[in-house]
Amino acid sequence: MVRPVRQILSGAAELIGSLEQCHMSIRCPDGGPGGSKRLKFTHTEFSPYAMLSVVASLTPYSDFNQSPRNMYQCQMAKQTMGFPIHATEHRADNKTYRLHTPQTPLARTRRYSKYHMDEYPNGTNAVVAVLAYTGYDMEDAMILNKSSIERGFAHASIYKSINVNLRDERGRDLKFEANTSAKRRDGTVRPKGAFGEEYPQAIPSHATFASTKDQGVSVVGTHADALLIDSDGLPHVGCPIWPGQPYYNAKETLTGSNKAGKLKGEETAIIEQVTVIGGGKGADIKQASIKMRFNRNPVIGAPSGAMSMKYPGMEVKGVPKECSVLCRR
Questions:
Q1: Of 28, 166, 222, 254, which is most buried by a Cβ count within 10 Å?
Q2: Looking at the predicted structure, is the pLDDT value of residue 139 above 70?
Q3: Where in the cell is it found (predicted)?
Q4: Which CATH number fits domain 157-186+220-295: 3.40.50.10860, 2.40.50.150, 3.30.365.10, 3.30.70.940?
């Protein structure tokens, strides 16, 4: 945690720490006395922007904003839905957020280009219509263009990695293996979510089916949950897992009993990646990292987004169809 300043006596650059700078006399580079003519300075800043942090220096026209709003923008910029990493498939973070359609800002500061923020963009440009006439007093809320959402506006995903370690089960010798004691059930019952949604389902093998019984991928094996779990007890990559459905199965070597790990929560997950940890030289697999993907698209009533309604563009009278967000203040 060091930053560079310039020594006035020698003109050399010096790296100072956060605890040290509280007891130093550092001058602004404008050459002024800094509020006290008797104060003697030993160092000077390289630029007037050095007093700002990296996040604070990315806000354009900050001198036109209210000071608390600038601080609030720094907080929102750090927790925004952006593009934090490029090697998503090589990482096993507990939780990672990713925006699918990041864009470079139209208005930017000099520090934005200096820090190469386009390599890790953290937002999307939105055409906003502010309605501030009589009758448009809905306070702090937004109306999103339904067509913009259907084209991918603000679509994002959350990646969660679950580390399953069978060695943590004390007193039980478990290994990943499919449940062969129960047979596969080929029913036509389609799972439903907490709000009645029925999609996504497993991708059908053909586009033309004569009946709903044939809908689904062609599974291999007669074990239980063969559409979700492979013969090795680990899930299929790309398979949708609904809440309450198993995404792995482990079998005890002594008794033959099965233990299935079921998805918790109310959201549908897509198996993104399955990584086997250890298990070399013919040994049984005891540990695996299962990465899941959850959709994070704009929804009505979300506490963080505060979206009130999705309107088709042709139903919003007097507003250009290019507008993505309507703010009513």
A1: 166
A2: no
A3: Plastid
A4: 2.40.50.150
